[in-house]
Amino acid sequence: MNELDQLVTAAQADFAAATTPADLENAKARYLGKSGRVTDLLKALGALPVEAKKARGAEINVAKVQVEAALQARRDALAAAELEAQLRAEALDVTLPGRGRGTGGLHPVSRTIERIEAIFGSMGFDVAEGPEIETDWMSFTALNNPENHPARSMQDTFYVDLKDAQGRWLNLRPHTSPMQVRYARAHAARHAGDIEQGKPMPEIRVIAPGRTYRVDSDATHSPMFHQCEGLWIGRNVSFKDLKFVFSDFIRQFFETDDFDVRFRPSFFPFTEPSAEIDIAFRSGPLAGRWLEVAGSGQVHPNVVRNYGLDPETHIGFAFGMGPDRLAMLRYGIDDLRLMFDGDLRFLQQFN
Ligand code: DAH
Q1: pLDDT tens, 76-112?
Q2: Is residue 187 situated within a structural domain?
Q3: Range of the domain at 298
Q4: Residue 124 alpha carbon to ligand 1 centre in Å
Q5: Would you call 116 helix, strand, or coil by DSSP?
Q6: In 86-244, which ranges are E strands?
Q7: Does 226 contact ligand 1 (Cβ within 6 A)?
Q8: Which of 130, 108, 128 is CA-nearest to residue 120?
Q9: Which of 26, 54, 89 is a domain's end point?
Q10: 157 is a domain residue
Q11: What is the rounded average pLDDT for all residues in the chain?
């Protein structure tokens, strides 16, 4: 192999070894650059006699054309490889299923509360919300549950490390019953003019759903749970109205007429008389079992006084029920804790 063939072979090998365009340009400079090997050969021609110059020049040119061809081929190959890598990186598999954003949904307890609000709303009940951190007076005293009274221990209350203006510890409300007092006092204040003139005040008809808290935790109790308070106060509202309203609610909530309701005597400091409301379905998986669904009663005169109203002319009933329990009955859920674990496999079933 003559030296020109060797030079072409060396150039081809160098170009082949270059894996990036920058490497390739460096390799090119070694052959075709200002002091590259091909350029040096051409420069040396000047020292030759004319005839020899022609022949030698033609040979070198053949080699130069071959080096340039090898360079161009390598450039094309590198560009093609780069394009292919880019295409591969940006490849789009149109057969993949879409990722979507996922859809949110309402928690079964939220659904239940919305349902309760819609049903009572259709019966003319307002919906009220109130604070979850309560004063001692609102949670207990105003509800005829005086300090040191044993009835206070019916609820194992969480206290907050802060005192109210009376120097009493604030509590995480153990029930929604303080909302009776908050709502009725605001209502009485709004209609104070009528009340002073002995005119009838518009009736109080309200439900107050929300979170409540007690030191309690097992399959049927959670330290955070929900209640929905109900209150109807007028001139002539009786237990008969409570039974009618509550039965109608149950009928609409469970979408059946096939149940019995009973009032079982009970005790709550804020009502007199007091009753637990039980229902029993006559058919279905729960047929024949009495299920406790609410506490209720005629509002105690002391409580009506704390509403800012005269118990001689204002009478009515209150009730408190558990939306968590109602949701469990409606959906056939047997463990309350499922409601608050946040497990999507459970929650997705309701949406
Ligand atoms: N506050 C009671 C509780 O948490 C439930 C209750 C009972 C509410 C009777 C009432 C009522 O309004 O009249 O156990």
Answers
A1: 999 999 999 999 999 988 898 888 887 889 999 999 9
A2: yes
A3: 108-350
A4: 21
A5: helix
A6: 126-127, 133-134, 158-163, 169-172, 204-213, 224-234
A7: no
A8: 128
A9: 89
A10: yes
A11: 93
